[in-house]
From TrEMBL:
It comes from Seonamhaeicola aphaedonensis. Keywords: Hydrolase, Protease. One of its GO terms (molecular function) is peptidase activity. GO terms for biological process: protein catabolic process; proteolysis. This is ATP-dependent Clp protease adaptor protein ClpS. Gene3D superfamilies: 3.30.1390.10. The keyword Hydrolase applies. Residues 18-83 form the Adaptor protein ClpS core domain. It comes from the Bacteria.
Length: 91
């Protein structure tokens, strides 16, 4: 007769809960796809593919979350988007 013994280990996991925010980019009738894509690459460190996908989502859905993170990281990025003439906010 074969007996298997199961052992349950008790351990504690400490997690630091981060307060994450998002930069939401909104559609407008002024900026070109190329300008939006270039700005997302520079401001949000997107790859060209990510930036293109976000620009298409913004165009068809009216808005898109383009970056998630802590407020201190997002604030200068959102400012770059706004200075480039895009409509964005941190939520």
């Amino acid at each position: 007769m074969n007996t298997k013994e199961k052992i349950q280990e008790a351990f504690s996991v400490l997690e630091q809960e981060a307060n994450l925010n998002e930069i939401v980019l909104y559609n407008d009738d002024v900026n070109t796809f190329d300008h939006v894509i270039e700005t997302l690459i520079n401001a949000c460190d997107h790859t060209p593919e990510q930036a293109e996908q976000c620009s298409i989502i913004v165009h068809y859905k009216g808005k898109c979350t383009v970056k998630t993170g802590e407020y201190n990281d997002l604030e200068p990025r959102c400012t770059m988007l706004l200075n480039a003439g895009l409509s964005a906010e941190i939520v």
